[in-house]
Amino acid sequence: MTDGPQGPNSRADLSIGFVGLGNMGAPMAGRLVAAGFSVRVFDLAPLAVGPLVAVGAKPAESVIDCCAGADLVMTSLPRPESVQSVMAGEAGVLAHMKPGSTWVDLTTNRKELVSDLAAEAPQGVSVVESPVTGAVDGARTGTLTLFVGGQPRDVDRVAPVLEHLGTVIRCGALGNGNVVKLVTNQLWFVAAAAIGEGFAVGLANGVELGTLWEAIKNSVGDSFVARHDAPSIFAGHYDPSFSLGLCLKDLGLLDELGRRVSAELPMTDAARAAFTQAAERYGEDAGELHVAKQIEDDAALSMRLDGHWTPHWEK
User: How far is residue 201's CA from residue 185's CA, in Å, rounded to a whole number?
Assistant: First the structure.
């Protein structure tokens, strides 16, 4: 992955197989195409492939066709079960990868599954995890944060490619990347569950919502949720780009990690209860910030705020 004619670390002769063209995967694959890499793409939804082909990606007929000859295989899938289905066993992608190639899993995954699959990898095939954070706008603009775990030499090999997607944080051994990602989500879930409560207390006591929001952003109450997510509440769509079902998936993975802590985790437990209640009320396909809508509905308050709230996935 040395410098080539199209610029540093953008060599078209490095072949990438990219599996999973959802809300996050599609813009990440698109950035790699734009950087000059040779990218073959596959998704179970054929309509997801067309826009990538239109900007220069190559379509694959199957997941094996996408990955078997690739130097670098990248997966961006919704759940650990999806990764297992695609990668594991004699019919899975890992068994068909060529010696010298590397698999990078961008999925927020179960720590043990990544390690178990790495143990199945054929001789000469390396495995690196790189779950990401930064939402769809971060994927589109290349400003994600990537939590990378794996052998240092393997991480060194793929880091120049990952840097086209955002900031690489080296987290240590394989598995650590997913632990770090889930801890960041743990804190996000607590903040997302709390911000609706804060808005409700202010509104119920006569504070104008715009004033309250400005105060929060310029105080110790500031957070990514306040700055990035609150407009999805104001607009009333509650961010459909990430579902309550995916929140519950990550909260389940966090529960597994939390069992190793010899103490109560009341904030995390409360957040899981709030997201579970929201999913039961609005459905798992509803946007993540319905965790705030349930407070809005129960309190009979409106958290609409006039403004040009361009959805973050369109920025």
Answer: 25
Element containing residue 257 per DSSP (H, E): helix 244-258
The span from the CA of 75 to the CA of 79, in Å, is: 11
Catalytic residue among 181, 217, 293, 315: 181
Q: What is the pTM of this model?
A: 0.94
Domain boundaries, given as residue ranges, for the chain: 15-174, 179-314
Find where tokens 């990430």 sit: 242
Task: Report the CATH fold assignment for 179-314.
Answer: N-(1-d-carboxylethyl)-l-norvaline Dehydrogenase; domain 2 (1.10.1040)
Which regions of the chain does DSSP assign to beta strands (E)? 15-19, 38-42, 58-59, 72-75, 102-105, 126-129, 132-133, 144-149, 166-172
pLDDT, tens digit (0-9, with 9 covering 90-100), for 54-98: 999 999 999 999 999 999 999 999 999 999 999 999 999 999 999
Examine the residue annotation and report whether 181 is marked as an active-site residue of this protein: yes
Query: Which amino acid appears at position 242 of this protein?
Result: F
Residues 273 and 276: their CA atoms lie apart, in Å, by 5
CATH of 15-174, one of 3.40.309.10, 3.30.460.80, 3.40.50.620, 3.40.50.720: 3.40.50.720
Residue 43: both structure tokens together: 């998704």
Q: Identify the DSSP state of 219.
A: S
Where residue 148 falls (left for φ over 0; alpha for ψ -120 to 50; beta otherwise) is: beta
